[in-house]
Amino acid sequence: MKFATGTTVKNFDDYAAWLDVAADCGYAMLTTGDSQSLWADPYVSLAFAAQRTTTQRLGITVSNPKTRHPAVAASAASALQHISGGRFVLGIASGDSALRNIGVRPGTVDETETYVRTVRALTRGGHATWQGTDLVQRWAPSRTPVWMAAEGPRTLRAAGRSADGVILSNSLTREAYTRNLAHIAEGAAEAGRTLADLEIWCMANVVPAATEAEGIAQVRSVLAGTANHVFRFTTEGKGLPPALVPKVEELKRRYDSTHHASPETAAHNAALVDELGLTAWLAGHSTVAGPIEYCADRLAEIEEAGIHNLVVAQFVPDPIAFMRTFADKVVSRLA
């Protein structure tokens, strides 16, 4: 199993220290997100990371088709490839907090897929058409893997058709992962490809704690944010039990995007999942929490289900200590 991990950058002195520890702990990929109202620009952050690391892949998980024209994204991606020596990966989704916080609607499935195709073509030196305009990058394009974050059947099939990889949320159960892979495979087949042509990564909260309940309690706001994102357009085809559908709809109505991905300030969002009775189901699909031995056993079960690439979130009080604990005490037990 390979592990990636990420952070949201708000202070570059802190980020430098974070990068040094993350590199020392052996993570395969280091990521950040794209939400301009909540943290630093991801291209700037990863350019900084490229200068401070040597071997780790660097990924944006994820950007969107609305705040950056595809020609702008392709140019920035090529620049990062040059700076990093080809280590950069660009993830794209329809858009969540980055758009909610500036009053812009998310991209549709078709818009997002077209955006992925366009950026992918431009970084490969090809021509593309975006909203009726012919595009080409006339300065040193650099081939960039473009991934899609996908949850529902339509988006999963689009990712299978058009992306180089897929980022999955709420997929840590065997049933959910198998269902999602089937949709990706359908899309890949439409483009004459197979699952072997795509890189699949799953998002996961891993929280070492005295008990599973204590660990889950630390990431309740993250569970709320994941649910708000995964089910923001529809609950259909995503494995949600019918009894939980009205509860998720209520969560979406009351979710506060100004504190998305900020556990330290998101008490309102954290309280929602408990109040609505969603905590257990959401945690079961996205979170590994509890004593070290239990976390290692759960990760081994997840690997047995076929999941081999995990992006480990760091919504914990002390990210530096978490990275060392995870590498030294959890990952070492999987060897």
From TrEMBL:
The keyword Oxidoreductase applies. Keywords: Oxidoreductase. Coiled coil: none annotated. InterPro entries: F420-G6PD/mer (IPR050564), Luciferase-like_dom (IPR011251), Luciferase-like_sf (IPR036661). CDD domains: Tetrahydromethanopterin_reductase (cd01097). It holds the Pfam family Bac_luciferase. It comes from the Bacteria. Residues 8-308 form the Luciferase-like domain. PANTHER family: 5,10-METHYLENETETRAHYDROMETHANOPTERIN REDUCTASE (PTHR43244:SF1), PTHR43244. This is LLM class flavin-dependent oxidoreductase. It comes from Streptodolium elevatio.
